Amino acid sequence: MIVNAPTAHQSSPFLPCTFVLCAALFVLLDGLGVTGLWMASLKALPIAILAQLALRQLYGLSRSLTLAALAFSALGDVLLEITFTHHFIFGLGAFLLAQLLYAANFLRHADFRNRRSLMRILPVILCALVLARLILPVTGELAPAVLFYLLAIVAMALGAAAHRGNSGLLFTGAITFMLSDTLIALNKFVTPLPLADTAIMLTYYSAQFAILYGIRRTQA
Fold this sequence. Notes:
transmembrane helix; mainly alpha; Rhopdopsin 7-helix transmembrane proteins; 8 helices; TMEM86B-like; Lysoplasmalogenase
C-alpha cells in the first residue's frame, strides 16, 4: 500500500480572504492612529489565521517549525504593539526565535552548490553588509542584539535562497521579510520614514503569507 504525504491542498478561499481582510483592517486602523490593547490582538490575528492554514496545508517537521515560527511572530506582534519597559527588546527576542525557526526549516533543504542559489545568495549578503554598516553604528547598547537578529534573518533568507525545488515564492517572502525589518531599523535608528508603520505592516504580512505558501509549494 502506498501512503502519500498529507495533501490538504484543496482549501477553500475563506481563510486566505479572512487573512487579507484582517491584515487590511489592522493596517487601516493603525494608519488612522487608533490605539488600545485590542489592537495588539488584531495585529496578531492575521498570523493566527496563517497558523490555521499551516495546520491544514503543511505536514511533517516543516509544519511544526512553521507553526512555532508563526507563534513567536504573533507573540512579537503583541509585544511590539503594547508599551512597557523594554518592550522592543522582548519583541525583538520573539522575532529572533521566529527567524531561527524559519532558518532551521529552510536550511534542512538547502543546496548552496548550484548557480541559482549563488545568484540569489550574493545580493542577500551584499544587502546585509550595507545594512549592517548603516545601522549598527547608531544602535548604541542595542548593537549586539540587533547584530544577532540581523544574522538570524540573513540565515533565514540564505536558507530560502538555496532551498531546493520550486522555491521562488519562498525566496520572495524571505526577501520581503528582510525589507520589512529593514524599514523598522531605518525608522527606529536612522531617520523617521513617511508612512513607516503602514509600509512595515504591509511588507510584513505579505512576507508571512508568501513564506507560508512558498513552503506549501516546495512540499507539493
